[in-house]
Amino acid sequence: MVEKLTSVKNARVKEWKKLQTRKGRKQQGRYLLEGWHLVNEALQADRGLHELIGTKEELAAHPDIVARFKEVYSVTPAIMAAVTETVTPQGIMVVADLPDLHQVATDLSGAWLFLDRVQDPGNVGTMVRTADAAGFAGVVAGDGSADLFSPKVVRSMQGSQFHLALYEGDLKKWFEDVKQAGYPVYGTQLNPAAKDFRIVTPQGGFALVMGNEGRGMSEELLKQTTANLYIPMRGQAESLNVAVSAGILMFELADALNG
Amino acid sequence: MVEKLTSVKNARVKEWKKLQTRKGRKQQGRYLLEGWHLVNEALQADRGLHELIGTKEELAAHPDIVARFKEVYSVTPAIMAAVTETVTPQGIMVVADLPDLHQVATDLSGAWLFLDRVQDPGNVGTMVRTADAAGFAGVVAGDGSADLFSPKVVRSMQGSQFHLALYEGDLKKWFEDVKQAGYPVYGTQLNPAAKDFRIVTPQGGFALVMGNEGRGMSEELLKQTTANLYIPMRGQAESLNVAVSAGILMFELADALNG
Question: Locate the RNA 2-O ribose methyltransferase substrate binding domain: which residues (chains A, B) (predicted)?
Fold first, then answer.
């Protein structure tokens, strides 16, 4: 059944709009995915999907996908623009359940990425996507990091939230759990004792911590790492973009872990 | 001598504003660098600097740097906002000569990054910065790539334009020159004949080509490469962000070349 909506003041439209904010997402326990690529990823993962919302044209173009949803809303471009943040809305979106980001991870083997106050949503989303590509088990966004389900992060993750485990929480606690399980926690900060990232050989698992864009990792957490890694620079650039560094480190460490 | 400007309609202010556009930059042969970090990088490189433009507060806070400029303009926040594109202007900028992006590179040894229609300015700037960090000799932005000196690219490059050579032009011609010099041109595209990026061992030099964000490399250029490389994925992500891929490839290939 397709229901038509024409007013941006409709009660449902107002609820969807609230999903742009962290508060709205927490209250409803849901978030928005925009574009056919993400709608398809969500369908494949088959985890708690609700309303499919599209313009008349987009819905008409994909009857097979529309048929898989119980609740379908045909909306005007004005409603689409009001609900999404994007400059050029793609004309299709779906409301999905937020995963439980505070459950307890029982298996800490494999590769984990920890984000210590990484604030740019594009960086956070790109790192989740890269962690997925590198075969990581999960990503933990420490307190003070960008919200994992903000529209910008969701756009950059490109569906990787369906491929690995995502958590939010106090990294101090996570450090303890990883070390308790017998795996190293690798910080990333240039200091006299830091090790070239190419020489470590984790066995069975590890956690890699990336810090804030401008300030790096917090002092308190740095003290709790097993070792700190650095990427030797050949040129004159003072630093690398955090998502680029994370990519270089994740692919190298995943190789070292897997053999 | 510090000259005060208070009107956004001042002729000089209008000229500076034009530097936001490609046309304006070409006409004046100059571009804008914003923020103290970039002003310092430009001073260190000491290549064709012109007006230093700042708010009263910023100029007063750095008399030593101000003393190094012949032309200094004290402007209102309104003028600053009119000239820069940034949401929160940093209150200081400098006008610098554009380098000659079409000169002929005589030495093609070492590592080179070629950009085939990479369109996002943030990606282009981040890749130049990463190429600098990886010790690359230069970057060539092929036709259809983002302008290397647009404000967004300049922001993301973080001063790396002063550390390596930058060029613009027809990549077909550059491919020929690199191959003529005896070095391989590595494309990046998943195809049945592509090689794992970790197994190549360039001698003396190479060029790495990164393609467009959505469409990859152009068919025509792909046919002209020496070999095509791919990054094996362990997870389920379909692809990597182009700046992240470039970072992984550049650091690995620089190691293979130098080590």
Answer: 32-102
